[in-house]
Amino acid sequence: MPRVVFLLIPQVHLLDVAGPAQVFSTADDLGHPHTLTYVAEDDEVATVQGLTLRAETSWPSLTPDDLVIVPGWRGPTRPASQQALRHLREHHASGGTVASVCAGADALGRAGLLDGRRCTTHHAVQDELARLYPRAVVVKDRLYIEDDRIVTSAGVASGTDMALHLITTRHGPYAAGQVARAMLVHTHRDGTAEQISPLLRWRSHVDDTVHRIQDLIEVRFTERLPLSLLAEAAGCSERTVTRLFSQATGLTPLAYQTALRLERAEHLLGRGATVETAARAVGFVDARMLRRLRARTAPSAGR
Questions:
Q1: pTM of the model
Q2: Is 102 noted as a catalytic residue in this protein?
Q3: Of 61, 129, 170, 203, which sits most exposed with the smallest number of CB within 10 A?
């Protein structure tokens, strides 16, 4: 069972912890198990909002499948300890993912994990992050960014977006959609986050028929899905499927399926897969289609 470890710093922002924690807890309820652990220097941690949190004072053993999240805090306060920074470095070096919310990016910077990597943080402290860590590539006005298993987010509510992104990459877009709907959160923010999931971008509508079609595509996006199959699942004609889907999302069902395949392929490539392996894993016949799609989207992705 993957473990999600929250490193709590005194004067931590409650929502920076609670948002991502709720995402992973809800995922657990829906059949995607996670163990949530909270660690700190002391067993009680004061939040900005006045609620005291309980935490473990010793770190658990971690595997590459585990995730460490550093929520943001209000300064000035004592920085993360050298021991905590060492844990962050070692976890990433072993193949694990390290994430931050808001000012939590400072801990990643102190650990040297932002050097040479794209990152973001709350707009109020973006310039300060760039000044403190000149080797980091601070990208402004983004909800979240992932670069080589380092995930940073803008803060407060964007921590939830980041956590949904991590659910998508680990369990697929259908799982993320289940979590978002269970939490009653908006599945569409805006287009400023480069890593925002296609599911989160095109799930903001209220058409139940199209949601059912998307559910099917998301579960079976690696398969060939003829329009007749989608129409049968939706209980309407093929023409109606195309019309309703286009009205709700601006896409054809095939274009939506292709976007899901491309997102999953990019994740596999980021984990070291070859283009050929990634292409076949997501349902393309060979690597040529994946190469063409990546080349087509490269300018908008800033590649």
A1: 0.68
A2: yes
A3: 61
